[in-house]
Specification:
471 residues, alpha/beta
Amino acid sequence: MHPANAALRTQVAQVLVDISNLETRLKEKQAELARLQHQLDVVTYPVLSLPPEIVSEIFGLCFPTERMGMDALNSDEAPLLLSQICGQWRRIALSTPALWRELDINLLCASRRAHGSEITKTITAPASKFVNTKFAKTFRRHASAIQWLDLNITDNELDEMTQLVNFPILRKLCVRASEEYGREGFSDDPIEMFDEVPQLSEVLLHYIPAHLVALPWRQLRKFTGDFYDIPQCLTALELMPNITESAFSIEVEEDDSIEDGDFDVISHAEMRSFTLFHSESIDTGGEAHNAKILKFLTFPKLESLELLDVEDYDADDLHQLVERGSPPLQRLVVHPHSNEGLGQLAVGMPPLSEQPHLTELEIWYPEQIFTSLFFDFFGHDDSLVPGLQKLSFYCRFKEGEDSQNDLLRLAAGPLTERMSLERVAQMRVFRVDAVGNVFSSHREEDLLPFRKLKEQGMEVYITSNGKANRI
């Protein structure tokens, strides 16, 4: 070998050694810089000194109480916002499963991007294209961790997605139809995307009849049907024999008439809680006649019944429901529609003396005829709701109804007298709220009896316009 070649090879080897040494020193300096920067960050931002477990718990409290537009991919809100603060928070956020187990998907809204970001805040592609998108692949990969899924979609898109994913731990499912499509936009073929979901227990279907979605009906424990008619409500209840809690918004067209013999009475043996509510999310031109469904139901084990913002309220229907099943009612809430009062409640209300298990009674917009009769007996008749422990009234300013001041003067004496009855449960809570924007002031002599009741252990709440009156 020529001497010059040997010398060059030696020099090359030495340069490589020097480069390796410099790279090692560079890595050491980079590590030292990272340690110093972390110490500086902790001093500047003390929150970074918290253990990751604590930060993770805090992150779990950062979700907005309501998501506008069903948008979970919002880079201005948790969880995506938390991953953009710094590298440490990003690592903690990505390693906190609780932040990512809920997912809302809206395939109908217009696309939006945040400040030029590549993060799409709302998924907008039709399902035929959606199945091959990068998001769909990520969605499939993480479906095994989703516990709560909310879809705003049409049935054609659901059909396209039928074979996309499995949900082994999905517990809560919401499927909502768009106002643009309504009931007519759905075919008669059941949607089969969720027919095998082993842990599913809670379902909400908005504007989608229950029989059009293949679900593990026997395992469901809670169901909400939004914008159903009476036949759809009855069909849904027949599908789920083990349901224990259900809520329905029932719509009847203005020219429809519901008679006693129109449908067979359904007996639902396991129902513990039943709620009727008036949904205003879609204006269809019809009217909600929620309470009419009571004609066709029997619940032998019912514990809680809520009639919220209902129209065409008929107290006889409620009376007959109680008589048919003799349910061990513990909680009754009657909230008539905002434009209507309680009507026949005073003369048609189920005999409360037959409800020894009733512990909570909540009445909205109490009419004078009802409250007068109720408190005439409340203070001395130990057969009237003998188990009652919580009594609540929500008043407004309307002719024929008791205002908050009227009701306070009416209730003070009977509440005090009831404290001395031996064969009734002791009242724990009495509440009177004034609904509306007017703040009510009260005379000292009106509040004095309630101060004495409070001293005897009763919780008393008197509020108006969201503000509590001092007692």
